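ARCHIVE CARD
Drawer: 12
Card no.: 0347
Subject: one protein chain, sequence and derived structure
Cross-reference: see card 0346
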Amino acid sequence: MQVVGTIARAGALAMLCCGLACAQDYPSARLLRILTSQAGSGSDLIARIVAKRLPEVFGQQAFVDNRGILAPEIAAKAPPDGYTVLFYSTPLWVSPLLQAKSQWDAAKDFAPVTLAVNALNLLVVHPSLPVKSVRELLALAKARPGELNYGSGSAGSSSHLAAELFNAMAGVNMTRIPYRGIGPAVMGLLGGQVQVLFPSAGSGLPYVNSGRMRALAVTSAKPTALLPDLPTVAASGVPGYEADTPLGVFLPAGTPAKIVAQLHHGITATLNLPEIKKLVLAQGIEVVGSSPAEFAAWLKSDVARWSKLIREKGMREEQ
């Protein structure tokens, strides 16, 4: 027993020393791997912007690895050495709330680094739908319960949650048409397969400007200077409504605090470069750059908010 105890203590000491050594050497000549969702998504856009400019402020190069819905599972199992970074949005912490079995636990498997950005969402409809305001949409949805439909990305995505929150708070019942991502959902609305959508401003604005979608409102709590002619959903008949698309940066749980702090500094410094802030703001994306502690507290409150909705709407899978 004494030998076993000695071996265990030696192993723990070795791991501690390794962690300290990694933290002292970080970042080294090794590339950073940024795991994120599918190519063309909002998460992918920000990941690529950061990867391109990160070497200037962090002294280390990075590459983007698009793994879609597998990205969180891969990141959760990666060594906690700071070289596997996860850029992911709401499904990371909401999908496990919807599923009876999940491949990861957002609270246990990841170390929060920063709430990097927050993307503006729109409420849009197909031009054939006879509504030109949120109030007209509400009136139509209440007159035809269950007949209107909305497109969304995967379960737990921002487009899914925004629509279900709208259903709950407005007292309407639009039917969900699920797609693999917001890109296919946008195509579904353009093709007339769905009538209502809550896309990000970046993915929806080009089609709004071309007349192929009709924008009714923004989903932010306050109006935005980017789209001064659009009211908020909250001011248009659904008081208190707010549903944007946050993007967080994570490391595997157990990553040394010094490495978390170093990566936080590198990423937030990159995002706060004036030209980067200008670039993303033009697409309806606001740089946040919260501290790890602030991000952890925000995550806790956001999980509580969506847990309440999922419970009240009976959205959780039972098997």
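Annotation on reverse: Residues 1-21 have pLDDT under 50 and may be disordered. The first strand starts at residue 32 and ends at 36.
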